[in-house]
Amino acid sequence: MSTENMLYNSQMDNLVISEYGRNIQNMILAIKDMDDVLKRQEYAEAIVDLMHQMHPTDKNNPDSKVKLWHHLFKIAGFDINVVPPDGIIPTPDNTRIQMAAVEYPKTLRKYRHYGKNVQVLVEKAVQMEDGEKKEEFVMIIAAYMKLAYRTWNREHFVSDEVIKQDLLAMSEGTIQIADDDSIVVTAPMPSSNQYRRRPNNKGRKNTNYRTNNRNSGGRHGGGRNNNRNKRR
Questions:
Q1: Which of 84, 76, 3 is nearest to 41 (CA)?
Q2: Of 66, 69, 79, 172, which is most buried, counting CB atoms within 10 Å of its CB?
Q3: Contact in structure between 222 and 211 (CB atoms under 8 Å)
């Protein structure tokens, strides 16, 4: 078999959108030079239907046909005289997807071990009116901060003074607990042994194999004793 006239993919033009394959790209490029406007439009709609059949997972998406027409124009280099059903001609500008900027959470990096929810509670406490209700709410926040601090720093002792200073800094100096007030944590403090990994016994051989067989009358001794008793 002669290989002189064979055409390899490396000798062809690159695929604009590889998921549709070379045949779809060749059909789109072929109808670009058609003189009959109606027939060119008919063929373009048939190609879009074929592209739609190649990706059945997008059938439930109402914008799937719009995306396919954008892909058709992109493969054609945005130089094809056809009109999509919505009448909007795709261009390189309206084809690009404009991603919305993602805002990073504005939290204090120094106190992130308390969690985002604690910062939200502190901001809410700052906006509350002074009174008994605010004082109780502040003490609840302080108790949770003490519990969270002990959870992530199990090897270190946490004092009420540390929690009071952190709460003062997180509230920008607006929330201050008196020096003689104690922060009481009603929930049990997690111990260091609570987080230790338990030994995994999977895959270990049973070291009591012979002992079990002896007790159950297996072939390691128990069976011999039974045979001796029968002879007697």
A1: 84
A2: 69
A3: no
Q: Answer yes or no: is 203 within a domain.
A: no
Q: What share of the chain is helix, strand, coil (3-state, %, to 5)?
A: 55, 0, 45
**Which residues, including other chains, have CB under 8 Å from residue 184's CB and lie 6 or more apart?**
139, 143
**Each residue's pLDDT tens digit, 52-102:** 888 776 666 767 888 899 999 999 999 999 999 888 888 887 766 566 777
Residues 83, 123 within the same domain: no
Tell whether 211 is covered by a domain.
no
Nearest to 49 by CA among 29, 24, 73, 30: 24
Per-residue pLDDT at 111: 78
Range of the domain at 41: 12-95
Residue 64 tokens, joined? 């799937």
Is 17 a member of any domain?
yes
